Write the structure tokens for this entry.
Amino acid sequence: MRRLTGVLARGVRRVMARADAAMNRLYGWRHNPLYMSGTLAAVSLAVVLVTGIYLLLFYRIGAPYASVARITDQVWAGRWIRSLHRFASDAAVLAAAVHALRLFVQDRSWGPRALAWVSGLVLLFSIFVCGWTGYVMVWDVQGELLAREGARFFDLLPLFSEPIGRAFAGDRAIPGAFFFLNLFLHVALPIGVGLLLWIHVSRVARPAILPPRGLTWGVTGILTALAVVWPVAMAPAADLFRVAGRAPFDAFYSFWLPVVRPLPAGAAWALVIVVSAVALGAPLWARPRKAARQLPSTVDERLCTGCEQCYLDCPYEAIAMIARTDDRPTLVAHVDPDLCTSCGICAGSCAPMGVGPPLRTGRDQLELASSFVAERQSGARDVVIIACGRGAGGVGALESVEGAPVHAVQCAGNLHSSVVEYLVRSGVGGVLVVSCPPRDCWNREGAKWLEARLYHDREAELKARVDRRRVRLLYAAEGERHAVLAELAQFRAAVATLDAAAGEKDIDLSALCEPVHDGAAP
Amino acid sequence: MSAALRPAGVLVALLATAALGALSRVPYTGRRGTDAYVRLAWRTRGERVETCRRLSPEELARIPAHMRREEECVGHILPYRLEVTLDDSLATRDSVASKGARADRPLYVFQEFPVAPGRHRLSVTFARLGAIPAGQEEHGALPERLELDAEVTLGPRQIALVTYDEERRKLVLKGYGAPVPR
């Protein structure tokens, strides 16, 4: 199962990498809608909410189809608002599905992220049910079919003394309570959606709920334009005495009909249960074997100065500041292993290199950089690439690119600035750090903090003594090898104009690290 | 986005939005074919029969004081036999019994029979199984035997509904195929 999933995920990721690269070319990484799929779902839901309030004013339980038809007849408002309501709900499902697929293939569905995964699926299901009830509200042929299918499912449960489906037999009028209950669900579910959204982001620090303003208004505007130019028309009204013929259906909410309708209700239930169990169980079956999992970060209390930077930078709120066990006056960082995803961002943010996942702390990184330099003996005008192992044009998996040796790190956000300093001081011509775009960091904020440390003096900053002309940061998605090659060529040309780097021999690694505290009071 | 790629970006956004609009109204046929249907659907209280006996003083003593009743009755709704003949061939012969742990829920019938569009001879019989003990007959309750013989003419995908009219106490036709135009 794991192997099959891995093969499938890699295949999807390859396609996604190309799509990301194409979107980055068209819109730039700041406005790439694929990076913003989760927030686009939230924006779409906000549009649904606002337009829904207007529609609710005119909807009548006693005359569902006629009232929706009246809304659709309002050329200046109702027609496009109803259409926008529908298109935005379609966009919400689409964006949420892309978001889920993206996180799954990026291996971000298990461990401490399991809560977000499960709540996200429940959220998607709630949106879906909300849409279902919305279509039933219209009481056109699609609404009738969805209602009948819902009744068919529930009739299999031993809950009712007679089939619910009989309500649509036509021997008596459909009870008003049915449309009232339907409307109630349609209005009440979004409240649940709000609660689920809160749970969904509860384990991340600084959750991004909305995309950049330009994208927010762009998506809202283009959906509105669609609603005005190509509004939704009324489908034929539900007729209990006629089998529904060919009619327009919303594929985002009715895509399952062709699969499920031919099945007996029991088989349909079984299918739904199996699909739900597989999806919800992803945190269990998609996670790597225990031996292959990255261990959570640990804190070396002797090194921790209590600066709180790791606590501030951790994207998953896995670090707390607690009382020390020694006699120093500061607090000490403490990592909750149940919340730690082993992203390693704390390793990059810790100036004294006292925190991080095993073998990926700043000190470990310096050791690796030292070996890297010793093995290669780069020239005074050579460029070395430090590449994120995930995106970065895929160069993290290579030994070298166009002759430039590659030093891979698991996530660019892990990278301690001392490694960059070490490489520059060891005499390489320049260091090109290639990171995933900030919006696509698998660890949420790695690229953001990296840039802040390299260029904006965020704690654990790249020291002023490092010649900035020899350091360059590039954002490149997995499918943007061309961008890496272009930047490498430019950087090489720039480095060639500099004086040959004066390499230092025998750099004292311990001097780059702050001294270990022996436990005595300072 | 570079200026050269701006038109391409706008075009892709427009195409994606148009695709969303198109997927929002994909033509779909709920049930393929042109079959018409004869639907039987009704719900009725049915005939409840009870057998009662007086409890002995010992039995009464075992029951909490606030729950004591001198007479204990066990009852159920009498089942009916449903027989449907379509164009002189038997479509179903089924017994309709009350549901529920005490078999006291109302009787219901809910069945559909596909037929080719056109004219059809329909015969429905709903007959009580078992007799009502003397003295337990209810005024206005479900008749012992309900019958409907009719000819229905149905177009493609039309549905004729046979249902029980409680006021007239007989089976009637509704929907397409009913004698009175809808």
Q: What stands out?
A: The two ends of chain A are 55 Å apart (CA to CA). The first helix of chain A runs from residue 2 to 27. Chain A touches chain B through 44 residues (CB under 8 Å).
